[in-house]
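Example 252.
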Amino acid sequence: MLQLKNVNLILEGEQGKKQILKDINLTLEDKRIYVMTGPNGGGKSSIAKTIMGIYPPTSGQIILNGEDISALGVTERARLGIGYAFQQPPRFKGIKVKDMLKLAAGEDSNLNICDLLYDVGLCSQDYLEREIDASFSGGELKRVEIASILARKLKVALFDEPEAGIDLWSFQSLTETFENLNRKYNTTIVIISHQERILRLAHQVIVIADGMVKEITTPHKFLGEIEKMESDCLCKNNCTFIGGKIDAQCDR
Ligand SMILES: Nc1ncnc2c1ncn2[C@@H]1O[C@H](COP(=O)(O)OP(=O)(O)O)[C@@H](O)[C@H]1O
Ligand SMILES: [Mg+2]
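Predicted structure in complex with adenosine-5'-diphosphate:
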């Protein structure tokens, strides 16, 4: 379980100091998929970077399975099993795709890196020997980075707008990959996304705006489906919409 307690983040911007995150409180349980969404500039990537240790919180605590990790740096947090796939991944020049994935997988020799590339919609034969250089498109780079996070058996995996630069075809396999990752390991998955398909994977949707948690809700509620059913429902029992079905007590 990962907890953020009263996390505040102040960063030095072009116009001086700015409060980016305001009193964030979140509890992220093991084995759950969370989707963080909300307007651009709301603070989603900053929350992910604060969890990863890229931005140390100005105040507040980050607690992983009862251990306060607020003061730890990126490397130590990575060692504890936290991984972050950047919204705009950096290019690690001069490293081959297969070496980057092997490095990420560590001693896990059972891991098939060809399968990993397949999961993110890349044909492994074309990519294994390629160096990650300027010839990589943004979409290709992003997929290799997602694969490198999938290679690690993480406690907390953060994916920042994984859909960017990915075609619809690969997107379908990527959503299945997230579900498999969730089923196989106890990984807490946090996906920052605006995509309906990804929102539907979530156990909980966390809406972030103005540096604050605005709402924690279900995908159905977020997508406006309950409201729609309630307005369709004539029995006035306050029916909720669970797994696509109307409550049993509904006598509409
Ligand atoms: N390193 C930084 N220095 C100064 N301001 C930043 C930095 N990173 C993000 N911000 C600002 O923090 C706010 C939230 O950004 P971000 O977390 O990227 O939002 P989101 O991912 O929801 O689009 C924005 O106003 C952005 O300009
Ligand atoms: Mg962002």
